[in-house]
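Re: export button greyed out
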Amino acid sequence: MPVDGQSRLAVGGARLLRDGERVLVGVGTPNLAANIAKRLHAPRLVLIYESGVVDAAPPKLPLSIGDPDLVRTSLCVLPIHDLFSQYLQTGWIDVGFMGGAQIDRRGNLNSTVIGPYESPTARLAGSGGAADIASFARRTIVLMPHDLRRFPEHVDFVTSPGHPPGARRPNGPATVVTDLGSFDYDEDGEMRLVALHPGVTVEEVRAKTGWPLRIAPRIEEIPPPTPDELRVLGELRRQEEMNP
Amino acid sequence: MADFLPLQDAVARYVRDGDHLYLAGFTHLIPFAFGHEIIRQGRRHLTLSRATPDLVYDQMLAAHVADRVVFSYAGNPGVGNLPVFRRAVESGEVEIEEYTHFELVARLAAGAAGLPFWPVRSLENDLSRRRPRPHVRSPFGDEEVAVVPPLRPDVTLVHAHCADEDGNLYAWGLLGEIKEAALAADVVIASVEEVRSAASLRAERDHLLLPSFRVQSVSLAPWGAHPSYVLGRYDRDTTFYTEWDALARDPSATEEWLKRFVFGTADRAAYTALLPKGRLAALKEAAQHAG
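Workaround output, generated via the alternate export path:
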C-alpha cells in the first residue's frame, strides 16, 4: 500500500518526540503526530494545547484544541495568560510542534496571508500562539506538505520567526518534516536536507524548493511507517471521521 | 451588584452603536446568545475584540454589525478559516488589528490590572514590524523588553455555568482569557445556564468566575453558548462547526441562515427549537461522559 503524504508527515513527526517531553501541539497534522507518539514510543509525552489544556489523553482525536474531550482527560487547564506568560515564556515547553502555509530557508513560517498584507489573495487564520511558541519553545518541529508555493525563497509574511540572518538561534526551528524528506538547520541557521522518504530523489526536493537548497553530506533514508505506526494512524483517523 | 435582566434588555441597555465589545470565551463558553441578540437589535459600527473570532464573530460580521476586529487567531480549528471574516478582510469591509495570542492576552492583563502596558518577550515578527512594540528598560537592571498597550473594551460579554441569586458568576473547565477580558472592561454583562442558590454555591468558591460587584447584569440563557460548549452540560457541536464552513462560503446561504436562526427567532428557546432533531439531546448526553 502506498503511503500518503499526511501519513509521512504524521509518522515522521511522531518519531521526533521523546518520551517525557512537554510538547505544545498545533491543530491538524501535528495533533495527529503527537497522538501517534503518545500511543507508541512516548506514553509519558505531555501534550499541551494553546487553549491551556495540559497533559491531555484524548480518547479520540479532537477537532479543536479546546475540545471537551481534551479538557475531561487533562491534568489541568491553565488560563491562557498563565500558559504563555509563566510556562512558555519561561522555557518550560520542550517542543513547539506546528504547521504553516509557507516556510523559507531561515525557517520563518507564514500562517497569516498569501500576497500583500493590505490586499491579500488569501487571508489565513493568523498567528494564534504560533509566533510565541516559535519564540520560546526549546526547539520547534514543523510538519508541512512540500511544494514550490509552500517553500518559497521568502515567505509572504513572517508570522513565526525562524533563524535570524547569518546565525542559528539555539531554540529556533530544529527540524522540518515534509512528504519528501526531513530537514535540519545548519550552524548558519540555513535549512538543509538530511533525509529522504523512500523513493524520493534529491532532484525532486530541489525542484519543489524555491531556493538553492543545502544538502547534508550524507543523506539518510527515512524508514517507511512500521505496521504499529500504520495501525495507530488508522485508528486515529477512523475516530476523526467519527467525530463528533 | 448585578441586575437580573432578560437578555434582550441587557443588550438594549448596555450595548450601543460604536462600542468596543469583547465576547469572551476560548472555544468554551462563547456567548453566542449575546452575539445573536446584538445582530437582532441591529447594532452598527462596533469594534469586536476576541483572541479567536470564531463562528460568533463570523455570524456577527455577516450581519454587518462591526467596522473593526481585534484578534489573534481567525480560524475554525480543525476545519479551516472563517469564511465571512475572510471576505470582509479581503474586500476591506472591516479593518483589522492583529496580534499573537500572548500579545493579545497580555493586552487584556494590562487592561484588567489598570496598568499602562504589559511586557512580553515574544520575538519580533511581521506584525510587530508593521505596528512596532515600544521597548522599556527595566529600572532594576539594563534589560530591555517589548511592551503592549492595555486593551480596554467598553463592554465584555461572558457566558457562565451559573449565577447565584446575587449575580455572582461561576464557571469551570477551560477559562481561557475570560477573567482578564471581563476585568479589563468597566461593564460586564453575563448570560448563564442556570441560577442556583447562593447557599449551594458557597462551597464552589474555587469556581467563582466573577463576583457580583464586577457584573452589571445577568441573564438566564440556557444553551447560550451553543454551538460552543459548557463543560458538563453540553458538548461542542462539532457538526455545526464543520457545516458552517460550506454554509458561510456562500453569501446567500449565510444570509438565509441569519434570517432563519437569528432574525427569525425571538430568543434562545426559539433558536434551539430549530436545531436538528436529537442534536441537543446528543450534545447533552456526550457531556456526561467522564473521559
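The mean pLDDT of chain A is 95. The button fix ships in the next patch.
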